[in-house]
Amino acid sequence: MSYARFATMIATSTVVMFGLMYLNTYALDHVLYSQTRTWMAVLMGAVMAVIMMLFMLKMYASKRANIAIIVGSVVIAAAALWLVRSQQTVSDVAYMKAMVPHHSIAIMTSERAHLRDPRVRRLADQIIEAQVREIGEMKQLIADLERSPTPSDAPDLPPRNTSAAASTQ
After folding, report:
1. Do 58 and 30 form a contact (C-beta atoms < 8 A)?
2. 64 and 100 both lie in a single domain
3. Each residue of 34-50: pLDDT tens digit?
């Protein structure tokens, strides 16, 4: 096997994984581009490259190239993980475009789950109602911000304390 074929295999798998992450959205119009899903696909592709290279080391003759692929993949995985966890590249519109499919998943699972307890069904129906409303709000905001972005003189808001410890207090 050639290294070009290995790279093509990893790149193709990464693109496919990106697409697969949208299969659990409720509606096709809820599929919006998500930077977070891009970074997750890159993370998965990089980890897959390390695993596959380790399993197929004997198929590739150059130890130097094999080590470079593994080290490079670990660096790419670390960078992608940092981008996912930090959300450094995610602005207002990018955030909402990522949240629409996320909310769509909640609609799908709440609607299609085989729920028997009426309390759970009531909660699921409330989740559906809230998610549908919020998707509508986000789509309106996306359209508005894409027409006229926030003025550059608007003050930046301080980050919210959203740690798990803060939310349980």
Report:
1. no
2. no
3. 999 999 999 999 999 99
